[in-house]
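Appendix B, example 12.
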Amino acid sequence: MAQRKDIDGSTSVPTFYGKELRWQRERAGLSLEALVEGSFYGKSHLSDIERGERRMPLDLARHADQVLGTDGFFERRCEDVRKARRGGHAEYFVDVAEMEKRAQEIEEWDPTLIPGPLQLAP
């Protein structure tokens, strides 16, 4: 089994949220698999949330509140984490910026770009 890393909840809102989620899960004596059971998410998704690398979807927050008995804590904090995650990006770009961090390859296409040799005038 891999060594568990401690989460520094002071670095950002998402890491604070993730650290609280891990604490509540461990306090309840649940594994990652047990907490996501009955949801549409996997343990790696939940692990990313606990480390502050991914934001928690609202439906998963509701599921966690129900399983952990946290009286809506995670559902109420979803919006705070979403706003904190946004940073300097426009709202429509938030998901793209988050996915870009995990991308294995990034390709760009620009229909207005004219390659150098074609720019030469006769």
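The chain has a mean pLDDT of 80. Residues 13-88 form a domain with the 434 Repressor (Amino-terminal Domain) fold (CATH 1.10.260.40).
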